[in-house]
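Lab notebook, bench 4. We co-purified these components, and the gel suggests they stay together. Before we commit to crystallization screens, I want a quick structural picture of the whole thing.
Request: model the full complex, all chains together.
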Amino acid sequence: MIPGFPYAQPIEGFLGGLLIGLAAAIMLLGIGRIAGISGLLARASGMSDSGPKQSIALMFIIGLVIGGGLFSLTLGPIEVRYPPNLWWLVPAGLVVGIGTRLGSGCTSGHGVCGMSRLSRRSIIATLTFMVAGFATVALVNLSGGGW
Amino acid sequence: MKRHMIGLVSGVVFGFGLALSGMMNPARVRGFLDIFGHWDPTLAFVMGGAMLIMALAWAFQRRTIKPACAEEYHLPGTKRIDARLLIGAGLFGAGWGLGGLCPGPAIASLGTQFVPAAIFCASMLVGMLLFRAWDSRMS
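Here is the predicted assembly.
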């Protein structure tokens, strides 16, 4: 699709992105809340006092699982490739959990919602987690663990 | 009840969009972060599409007094750039690069790739609990 990048899926990516933006717009214009997934997960699981009512956050989280499943059933299957050793997901999940709470957001809250609002805080957070991601992947590759 | 439906519908659309975009594939997300290797720009198109719609939504939001089904907008007010923000985002980025997963795709994969998604999500919840324990000791 894009010369030089044989694996890229720009059209599917862009269309999926439009839907992600639509979902965030529904939350914002419907109930006045940011569709930040780490925050909504913390709220739904009772670990945070800020955000929409706990039951509404839980509905969003359940919807997320339904949405992924619905795609798999209709337009799927969803192509996936995980790290060769699934136990890598333990330290990965741990630091994602700590980091998203400490930094008040992830790709959805800071990336999609905050950057489009031109929030300086979100732009700096997004640049920081992207640079950390670049560095981590480069280090894993250098250590021979690339996948 | 209406607000619960809005939460559910937003979640479903979000999850469907994540699946369509390819972001539920950890290798593709990792490919975006692999700038010195076989770089995969797909994630940039996902962000572009999502930010385009949200930029329109923010423009509309600024012209309204309250959302359709709630009394007021609850928007983050803090503008502080502090160590918490930078260290938190740094840790998040490290985990994102290590596993190729962030919270949205991980949760959305619980119905399609249960074992890896559950390992990641359970670890993420433990991380959030650890943060809460530390945070309540600090304050």
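The radius of gyration of chain B is 18 Å. Worth comparing against the SEC data before the next meeting. Chain B touches chain A through 117 residues (CB under 8 Å).
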